[in-house]
What does this fold into?
Amino acid sequence: MDQRFETAKAKYEAVGVDVEKAMKEAERITLSMHCWQGDDVRGFDQKGPLSGGIQTTGNYPYSARTPEELFQDIEKVLSYVPGKQHKLNLHACYAIFEDGEWADRNRLEPKHFKKWVELAKKNGLGLDFNPTFFSHPLAESATLSSENEEVRKFWIQHGIQSLKISEYLATETGMPCLMNIWIPDGFKDIPADRKGPRARLKDSLDQILSTPYDKDKVKVSVESKVFGIGMESMTVGSHEFYMNYASRNDIYCLIDTGHFHPTENVADKLSSMLLFDDKVALHVSRPVRWDSDHVVLFNDDLRELALEIVRNGAEKFFIGMDYFDASINRVSAWTNGMRNMEKALLYACLTPNEKLKELQDKRNFTELMSLRERVKTLPFGDIWDCYCEKQGVLKEDEWFEDCRKYESEVLSKRG
Ligand code: RNT
Ligand code: ZN
It folds into this structure.
């Protein structure tokens, strides 16, 4: 290994990359791991199906059924992920009730997330939060944009409770909590009134955000989407809506990489946004023909995204993961997505970004192309393995065997 690392390092140095520095830079980047890959976005507060235009497909066995099982899987996944400081991203529907108690979304309280706080503290994690505006009888038609005032009030109250919960999570972990708002509201067919629902959404958000909360502890973001299943013709929370809403109200815009037209280059959006805002929030996902939330792979799109993160300064991003696959072992799906994000970030840190920029500024596109292509075949795998070793996590050819063992010794015993 040492020999391979030294040889690889020399090759990177030959193109002007300081490998040790790159590894240090990568290990400081925080990822927020979504809690919902382990049980197909089911959560613990409702028995009904996943709704809101998102879908998990597949029926691989051993999905986590209880908080204990989900926690166990989360700890397993995290044991495979390099990096010094990560967070867990919770959804309100993952509230944990004790002693036969149950509370509807408009009545959720910090105490329902106490067990999550314990898990976070035990593992040195930060926590992020999402109100859940789906998988609920009152979310069947619309939520914050609803024409039914009772329904709209219910969801506004859910948003307000979520702020309180987010503040509690931040206080307990000592790290700011990103509270992200995504609603499924939209129309299957061409709407006759677009402005009305959007005006109601704006008013609902105003009402939620006018509740006092500690802005140092809770950072709020809004997540747009171009369409959803059953909402093919129009989504109320469109990109233009939220870009403007976020900038006027001093909150953050969240870009989910699966929420744009498939030919759009999502990485290209980030630099523009950062010229007008200090931070951008992300949901890293992989759309396949639609917002299918496939497991994030180490592909060109992800590398381009990571390059933009690193070039603009990783501290300017809230990097959250958002994918869910029920057709394969969920722990391995979760791990692959997380490790691939880590890989892409390390890859971006190992890119001679300054040199490439210099060539662009000199309009030396001849050398730019050649250097970029040369970088692609550098022995990245050897550096990645060494990075994993240094971080105390299993290497690329080791973790899967361990994960297979976890399936046979733990998951398959779940019945
Ligand atoms: C849906 C959004 C949203 C959800 C999660 C579960 O299209 O991407 O972020 O995936 O909140
Ligand atoms: Zn998302």
